[in-house]
Known about the structure:
With 353 residues, chain A is of the alpha/beta class. Helix content of chain A is 18%, strand content 27%.
Amino acid sequence: LLGTHVAGLSPPRVADVVAALGGELLGDGDLELRRIGALEAADEHTVAHLSQARYRNAMLASAAGCVIAAPAEREALQARRSAILTADPYLYYARLTQWWAARQRPARRPGIHASAVVEPGAQVHPSATIGPLSYVASHAVVGESAWVGAQCHLAEGAQVGPGTRLHARVTMAESCQIGARGIVHSGSVIGADGFGFAPTQGRWEKIEQLGVVRIGDDVEIGANTCIDRGALEDTVLGDGVKLDNLVQVGHNVQVGAHCAMAGCVGIAGSARIGVGCTFGGGAIVLGHLQLVDGVHVSAMTIVTRSILKPGLYSGVFPFDENAAWEKNAATLRQLHALRERLRALEKLGATGA
Amino acid sequence: LLGTHVAGLSPPRVADVVAALGGELLGDGDLELRRIGALEAADEHTVAHLSQARYRNAMLASAAGCVIAAPAEREALQARRSAILTADPYLYYARLTQWWAARQRPARRPGIHASAVVEPGAQVHPSATIGPLSYVASHAVVGESAWVGAQCHLAEGAQVGPGTRLHARVTMAESCQIGARGIVHSGSVIGADGFGFAPTQGRWEKIEQLGVVRIGDDVEIGANTCIDRGALEDTVLGDGVKLDNLVQVGHNVQVGAHCAMAGCVGIAGSARIGVGCTFGGGAIVLGHLQLVDGVHVSAMTIVTRSILKPGLYSGVFPFDENAAWEKNAATLRQLHALRERLRALEKLGATGA
Amino acid sequence: LLGTHVAGLSPPRVADVVAALGGELLGDGDLELRRIGALEAADEHTVAHLSQARYRNAMLASAAGCVIAAPAEREALQARRSAILTADPYLYYARLTQWWAARQRPARRPGIHASAVVEPGAQVHPSATIGPLSYVASHAVVGESAWVGAQCHLAEGAQVGPGTRLHARVTMAESCQIGARGIVHSGSVIGADGFGFAPTQGRWEKIEQLGVVRIGDDVEIGANTCIDRGALEDTVLGDGVKLDNLVQVGHNVQVGAHCAMAGCVGIAGSARIGVGCTFGGGAIVLGHLQLVDGVHVSAMTIVTRSILKPGLYSGVFPFDENAAWEKNAATLRQLHALRERLRALEKLGATGA
């Protein structure tokens, strides 16, 4: 829907895009753009982009009325109705989607919905929005132009920074904070208790979680993701961090700026993660480990010791047809014995020689 | 509870079941049924079923007043108070649970609860139900006999098909759709943004997610499961798909009809999955891959390349007592070196021969 | 926040702590405590604890005004302003956090918030609290001093035991029960349908889930965790069980008393787990298995057969730099063939000898 031009709004022209986002216009600036699309599924009113060389043939064959591409494609684009040349077409495409969405999204209406419950002592900026059936406890702070969606929960002392948007049904627990321009998707829980217990006589004694969660600026948090409050110190997410859905971040974890975690990642308590690290889906980092800046972890890999050197790390059992896997897995259980047998043979070889 | 007969409702007789669901009645059709149960935990007012040969002894020993079984069991069931013969006892059992639950469930009351917030411009069918404290935005559409539970969220333009039931606290984001006769469990989020960013100078630039989620008919979605909206194209779930709890489906994914995914499965963005595939708990499929019809993936297996042949695929590290695992895992890290040593020995052998 | 002394409340003295929690006071009982902290980040008004010998140097260097430690440290603590000696410092610390949090938390106000919807026939104890925008269906029971947070959902017949606290946005489905003194964190779903379908002609026929969830006393359940209702029998969690966030417990599962499961664990349907078992993050137990008392499963390990002997079990692919992992993983796919080659060499050796 949002990728298609909305009826009633005059469609943008290629020249409008260039005026807003820059780049060099080739060909017809008056072409009306009705959708952003993929090269393969484009028509004359589609704007598409070429960001990887391997899609070049798709570009040449595409019916897209406008293509965003690197200057090196100038020649190939001469015959096309229109094109935009830019050094980083993928980045341009990202900004185009933002510009496009901003044009089409219904305007946000500031104010507190009549069905929301806002306790005395809450500070809601007059330019902020509190959606229907949301709850804002006392001492909660909602900043300038912040947008708290429907059915959200801001507990006592929770803070939402300027321009930050909480989608429907987000929970921010007591005294947890998110900075400016953030996005939190539905169902996320920021500031539930960390998992802390002292074992005693076969039982678990609760350790109250006395810290909070502090989230920087420009952070995006996916749906149903959980970030636990600290035990004594705080759980901290740096600026620009991006978390996908169903991610679990334990108590006291520190996530460096601009890290990205794909869906279903789990970071156990007190892990310290450097700047610009990335984690593939389902990866796990055990507790109390340190990962330096620039560490990249493959999907479904478990990090069991600290990583002090940047680079890509993996630990994944290769999948196979079940019968082949079964044979290999069975042998794997004897791997150490196999090594001993090999060693014995080598000795024999040495003796024999 | 539901499996037990509710006080105040007259218990069904075996003949009532056969009248409703078919099958051949053996013995006493007037036997009153007070519960559906397992063979091992049955009494004379229990109806149980035999669907696998390995439970045959349990059937012979069972005190169940009525047993559902295949016609081959006719002889063995002659002495029992009553029995129902049917070609597929497990299917019969499934339908019996449906019939039983429908008899016992409180009737749904059509209408919009006084505490729900329904915006002007929303289309709610007169036969539909909107539960307490739910929010229905403008241009949302709720079909005939649909049942939106308490505290749900239907964003602008969301569509719920006829007869579909959303349990409490379900989110359907802007313009996302689910077809007829679906079931969505609590906490699920349909249509949060996909995880899309363009890297730029150590930061991430958001790619607005302009597609929607389109879900077919007869789909069931588990609790706290997330299905992301598409980036440009849509995320699509075919008819009859069944997703368990805490499943993550990324943007642009296409899931073929009648696929089933167990808990904690993750499907990364733009994967295309054929018809009738199944995924064990915690399995992961990486992005942009294709899986043809009839692919079955074992639990906790990560699919790292496309699968173009139907069949069962696995990739699981065999678990073991920790000490044994440690030895094998340590050797595994030298596996390539081991292979080289083996090759050297083989050469030596060849030379020696 | 909670770990820091709240303005307006008079700070506790060390003697107050000892009066409440026991232990032997050394030094100045009048020292005011303003925060609970780690040894490394302490000042003269911080109470810290020493629970592991490896932190002993940190204790010796710490500026903490009060240290909780074992009697063996008496000598080392003589010079310190104050100290508390106790046999189990970690347990003491846990109880201190509870005492501290109880002092600082705003008092719970009994009663039903004006914005909550409580149906006729619900039984809410006069000393219980029902938070804003919560829904309590008929025949639901909320016990003495129970605390149902904001935007919770208690379906028909759900039961919340005395002193149990549901944080914001918890769902308890039809007839599900939790005992006394429990804690359930935001977004959890207790009692969604188990994943049960009978396959028929390429489709899935729903098996209605007729059991409930029954949870014992002193149980804590993390954020966005799901516990499915039983198919015929019930899903049961014993007393003192602790589940972290994003855990999935399938239908008919039995979890023994005092088990603990870290984040992202999945327990498939009908598994029976003994008393005092623990599960690392992301571990999976397949369906219908039995684990005896005292089984401990490492993080990200999949349990594929029953475990009848207590102990620690693991099955994790060791992670490595990507290039090294790739080589080993490639060889792993030929592991069975390698074994055959080794066997051939051994035969040759035997023949040669």
